[in-house]
UniProtKB/TrEMBL annotation:
EC numbers on record: 3.5.1.3
An annotated Gene Ontology molecular function: omega-amidase activity
Class of this enzyme: hydrolase
BP GO annotations: asparagine metabolic process; glutamine metabolic process; oxaloacetate metabolic process
Name the UniProt record assigns to this protein: omega-amidase
Organism (species): Phlebotomus papatasi (Sandfly)
Higher taxonomy: Eukaryota, Metazoa, Ecdysozoa, Arthropoda, Hexapoda
Record's GO cellular component terms: mitochondrion
Length: 301
C-alpha cells in the first residue's frame, strides 16, 4: 500500500512502560482528516498530539469538536497545543490548549491566555475503551475501502526561542524524576509570527539552525523528550522551498525524528478569514513514526 510505503520508523529505545504508549504527533490542519489519524490507529498509536494554530473563527467552531471526534474515531488520547492569543498579531490564535481522553471526554483545558497544563495519562483507559466498544473490530471493510491500504511569537526569533526555553524549564521544574520519561509538546510555529509573509524570514536548516540547536541543548540539559511544535524549515537542496516542520528531540539532545506537515492550511471565508499556507510552504510527503521502547509515536502536523 502506498501509504505504508511512506511510513518512517525510528527505534529510540527509552524507559520502561507498564502499558504501551503509542503516540502520534500531527500538525494543526491534520486533525481535520480522520483517515490520517486512522492510519496511525491501525499502527497501534494511542496518543495523538497536534501542535496547532487555529484562527478565532474556526477555533470557536472546530477546536474542541475535532479533538473529541478524533478521540472517538481512534479511541486514543488527543491533545491540540496552541499559542495564546495576541490581538496585536496579524494572526490571532484561538488558544485553549486541550487534552481529551479515549472516551472523548475533555480532561484538561487551558484558557486563551498563557497557561501550562499537566496531566498523568493512564493508557490502560485506551485499552479498555477499545475492548468495551470495539469500533475497529466492527468496521465493515468488506463494504468500503480501508483507509490504511499560548503566547504568539513576536518579531525576533531569538527572543521567541529564549522565551519558550524558559517555559520548558518552568514546566518541568517541579516534576519528580522516575523511570517514566517526561515529554514536553510545543505549539505550531512557535519561533515566528504566524503568516505566509513571515515564513521565509524565519526559516532555517534542521538540525543546524538556531531553533534546532536550542531545542537540542535544552532537551539534553533537562534530560527530557521534546516534540518541538513546528517551525519553518528551509530545504538544504533548494533554499526557496520551505516546509512547516515538527522535530522530536531525545534526552541526549539527539534529533529523533523530523516531520514535514502534510496537509497545508488554506481557508477563505468571505469577510471572516483568509489564510493560504500553501502560498509559502511545500507539503511533506511522508508519515513519520517514532518508536520509544514500547511507545510508538506517529508524527503529524
Amino acid at each position: 500500500h502506498k501509504l505504508y510505503e511512506q511510513l518512517k520508523l525510528s527505534d529510540l529505545g527509552i524507559g520502561k512502560f507498564n502499558k504501551n504508549l503509542l503516540y502520534l504527533p500531527g500538525i494543526c490542519f491534520d486533525i481535520e482528516f480522520d483517515e490520517f489519524a486512522r492510519v496511525y490507529r491501525n499502527e497501534g498509536c494511542n496518543f495523538l498530539v497536534y501542535p496547532a494554530a487555529f484562527p478565532i473563527y474556526t477555533g470557536e467552531l472546530h477546536w474542541e469538536l475535532y479533538q473529541r471526534a478524533r478521540a472517538a474515531d481512534t479511541q486514543s488520547y488527543v491533545t491540540m497545543v496552541s499559542a495564546s492569543r495576541d490581538y496585536t498579531n496579524p494572526f490571532v490564535n484561538w488558544g485553549y490548549t486541550t487534552l481529551v481522553d479515549p472516551w472523548a471526554r475533555v480532561i484538561k483545558k487551558a484558557g486563551e491566555d498563557e497557561e501550562i497544563i499537566k496531566a498523568d495519562l493512564d493508557f490502560s483507559l485506551a485499552d479498555s475503551a477499545r475492548e468495551q466498544l470495539p469500533v475497529f473490530r466492527k468496521r465493515r471493510t468488506d463494504m468500503y475501502e480501508v483507509v490504511a491500504k499560548h503566547r504568539t511569537a513576536g518579531d525576533v526569533k531569538e527572543d521567541n526561542v529564549t522565551y519558550v526555553m524558559g517555559k520548558i524549564r518552568a514546566a518541568v521544574a517541579d516534576e519528580k524524576r522516575t523511570s517514566v520519561p517526561i515529554l514536553v509538546v510545543l505549539p505550531e510555529l512557535f519561533n515566528s509570527p504566524y503568516g505566509p509573509q513571515f515564513f521565509d524570514k524565519y526559516a532555517e536548516l534542521i538540525p543546524d539552525g538556531y531553533t534546532s540547536k536550542a531545542l537540542s541543548a535544552i532537551a539534553k540539559e533537562l534530560g527530557i523528550y521534546i516534540i518541538g511544535g513546528s517551525y519553518p524549515e528551509r530545504d538544504p537542496q533548494n533554499p526557496k522551498t520551505l516546509y512547516n516542520t515538527c522535530t522530536v528531540w531525545g534526552p541526549k539532545g539527539e534529533l529523533l525524528a523530523k516531520h514535514r506537515k502534510v496537509h497545508l492550511y488554506d481557508i477563505e471565508v468571505p469577510n471572516k478569514v483568509t489564510f493560504k499556507e500553501s502560498t509559502a510552504m511545500t507539503p511533506g510527503k511522508n508519515y513519520t513514526i517514532v518508536e520509544i521502547g514500547p511507545a510508538k509515536i506517529g508524527i503529524g502536523e
